[in-house]
Write a structure and sequence with these properties.
5-stranded parallel sheet, 9 helices, single chain, Arc Repressor Mutant, subunit A, globular, 2 domains, 40% helix, Rossmann fold
Length: 241
């Protein structure tokens, strides 16, 4: 990954591509722009991309369909651009694997801040900057599973790697740092630094649901339990090494 990141903007609005691209380049990012699905796929095939800014309303193949396609093949972070007040698009985008969303029209500085927040979460943490699990032990094990916080890699009891989005990784790490303790939504949003949840209560529920499916798809018992009216509880014991 380059120091600032290679950003792919996918939007059929030429003015948004021009203005957002100019602003991000001025702040040290490499930027590639695409107006539709074909150009997006060509850009991603041409070389590594660190983050995709993806508009929901695209001609032909929609941004939601493209989000699904990207997530099937890659864990590259995705920030969706949605119509203001369109909760349905936000919910569907999160369920498909988007890491964050931003409503149009948006302030370029807010977009930049969200990009930086997502890229920081994606970069492995070294000893100097690590906190929580990363500082006292790079490997967290629970019920036969292992989370390597330096590699940001989750392996199941059979030793296979399970892909996690940045939001899912942040959420799992938060549970592992506070096992067997009830955490409410506000605590999860704050501890996981999950900006998608700001002002949008269902976002954390969607992330929990996605994480549960991945953990339970390998035959493991329910690990993340719902505490009705309060929040969530991570049941297994966690060991650090």
């Amino acid at each position: 990954m380059s120091p600032e990141g290679h950003i792919l903007i996918v939007d059929d609005d030429a003015e948004i591509r021009r203005l957002a691209g100019k602003f991000l380049r001025e702040h040290g990012h490499k930027v590639t722009a695409a107006q539709d699905a074909r150009e997006m796929r060509e850009a991603m095939a041409a070389g590594p991309v660190d983050l995709v800014i993806l508009d929901v309303m695209l001609p032909g193949t929609s941004g939601l369909d493209l989000c699904r396609d990207i997530r099937r093949a890659s864990d590259v972070p995705i920030i969706m651009l949605t119509a203001r007040g369109s909760d349905v698009d936000r919910i569907v985008g999160l369920e498909l694997g988007a890491d964050d969303y931003l409503a149009k029209p948006f302030n370029p500085r807010e977009l930049l801040a969200r990009i930086h927040a997502v890229l920081r979460r994606m970069r492995p943490q070294g000893n100097a900057g690590a906190s929580g699990a990363g500082a006292s032990g790079a490997r967290l094990t629970f019920s036969g599973w292992t989370l390597d916080t330096r590699r940001r890699e989750l392996t199941n009891p059979e030793g296979a790697v399970v892909d996690l989005s940045t939001g899912e990784y942040d959420l799992l790490l938060t549970f592992l740092e506070h096992p067997q303790r009830v955490l409410n939504r506000d605590q999860l949003m704050d501890a996981a630094k999950n900006r998608i949840a700001t002002g949008f209560d269902r976002a954390i529920d969607i992330q929990v649901s996605r994480l549960r499916k991945k953990l339970e798809s390998h035959g493991s018992p329910e690990m993340v339990k719902t505490v009705r009216g309060t929040g969530y509880f991570f049941a297994p014991e966690v060991e650090r090494s």
